[in-house]
Amino acid sequence: MNPEKIKVVMENGQSIEVVVFSKRADAIEVVLGEGINNIKCTLTPTRNGLAYAGSVMGRELVYQRSREQVQADIDRLNPSLRKPRAR
After folding, report:
1. Which residue has the higher pLDDT, 52 or 84?
2. 1 pLDDT exceeds 70?
3. Containing domain of residue 27, as a range?
4. Cβ neighbours of residue 79 closer than 8 Å, sequence gap 6 or more
5. What pLDDT was estimated at residue 85?
6. Which of 29, 52, 59, 81 could form a disulfide with 21 if both were Cys (CB 3.0 to 4.6 A apart)?
7. What pTM was estimated for this model as a whole?
8. Is 87 within the bounds of a domain?
9. Is residue 42 in a domain?
């Protein structure tokens, strides 16, 4: 099983690749680092909905995809989540 990785931009313009812990349209949880030196961070949509932002250890992280793009990615990766259940 390959973990999903996304690129986020730090406040100084440096981009880093982080592992996605959970991904929903209203929040993305990512893990920075590996092993015992890892840190979990929650990225939430910005006010205009064009990016996700969060901070870890005083540093701001930005994932530059809109809420609609993230929802489309979720639907594409697992289409069975969107189907209604049979009664």
Report:
1. 52
2. no
3. 5-81
4. none
5. 62
6. 29
7. 0.84
8. no
9. yes
